[in-house]
Amino acid sequence: MQYSIATPSEFSRVVTVTIPAADLEKEYKKTIKHLASTRKIDGFRKGKLPKDLVVQYFGSQAMNDSVNALLGKYYTEYLSEKKPAVACTPKIQIKGSVEIGKDLEMDILYDEFPEISLKDFSELTIDKPKVTISDDDIDSVIEVIRSQFAALEEVKDGSEIKNGDYLSINFTSTVPEGVTYEGGSGTKVGLVVGNNFYIPSFTDKFAGKKAGDKFDFDVTFPEDYKDSGVAGKTVTFHVEVAEHRRVILPEINSDLFKRFGIPADTDMETFRGMIKENLTHQLNQMTYSYNTTRVMRALQEANEIRIPESAVREECNRYRDRIIQENQNAAKELTSQVAYERYSARAKEQIIDELILETIIKDNNLKADEKVVAERIAEFASSYEEKDRVANFWKHKDSYLSGFRRRVEIEMVVDLVLSKSKGEEPEMNFRDYRKLVESFK
Fold this sequence. Notes:
Shape: elongated
CATH topology of the largest domain: Trigger factor, domain 2
CATH architecture of the largest domain: Orthogonal Bundle
Order of helices and strands: EEHHEEEHEEEEEHHHHHHHHEH
Largest sheet: 5 strands, antiparallel
Number of domains: 3
Number of strands: 11
Oligomer: single chain
Distance between the termini: 51 Å
């Protein structure tokens, strides 16, 4: 195979391939023979067409088919021999005229990803939290489960209101002169004491009061409050506690286990073990996502990697195609240019992540251990009722199996980078770790 490569710019490549005249003639004759045996012309039996009639009727099609077959064949051979890191869909152009007895030349135009040389991982600083699932973490989950099945009971003995209690209140409010805002009064409005989601410090005023109490209090709204009418203003509320209800948590017993969907005869040790197993699964998923994001971000920040713009545009178009596939109405508004403007930053980051991953995998000869892949499949399938059937399906479905292999490869890359990078190793429990992960942006 004869070809030459030109580099017009940093990423662009023009590969000129010469297809010998003999190859074109051979392919053309093969195509004519095929057409003669498959096409039909009135007055002739199928497969009995004279060659000159085949050329007369189908010669142009035969030439086009022959050229396309050769272009695909030689392009595939070029990819196999050169193995370029193609960044976008190539364009193939024929040079000059196409004639039997004459060499055929074609240009393959594409952009190529650059080779990447990453800085030493020891230059990176990435903290590595050491997380343990404590008894307190398990206790916290048990309290959440109890709260899911809690009952609300009206308080009729005149007990003081506490944080977490449910109230129904009637209220009006007095605002500074000239100020108006929505929600300044209400009847039988429900709230949870201590939950100040809507108005900061509002529900705190009810702690220590009782059902039937009527009282006034002032609240100063934040400067950035959503209703500009009262933002930064002090409002006086006139309230009446119409109803006081308290959360009654269920006992941890067989009845709770049945309601939760586990055998009624489950003992406490087994119950806690089930919770710990679930928390361990959550921890693994959080750690995978958290560490992967931090490692890839650190690698991108430490290494200046430039990529062809054509690759970014193609990735944005793939985003666009997926969105339109799910919602045909998006096609009119989501043009290729709009998709590029919205998703180019994300697409670029994703492409560079893949280049970095492939570089590390190749440079360190990393390969997913099939035993670990099987463990990951079992871990993910464990949340399904028919976990063995699901796991078996994934193991024998190439698209799923390749996805799990890729996950294990990413885990290997992340572990390698973390093992060589600098960073603190703080010890923390599951709850604090989850807060850390949730606050990470």
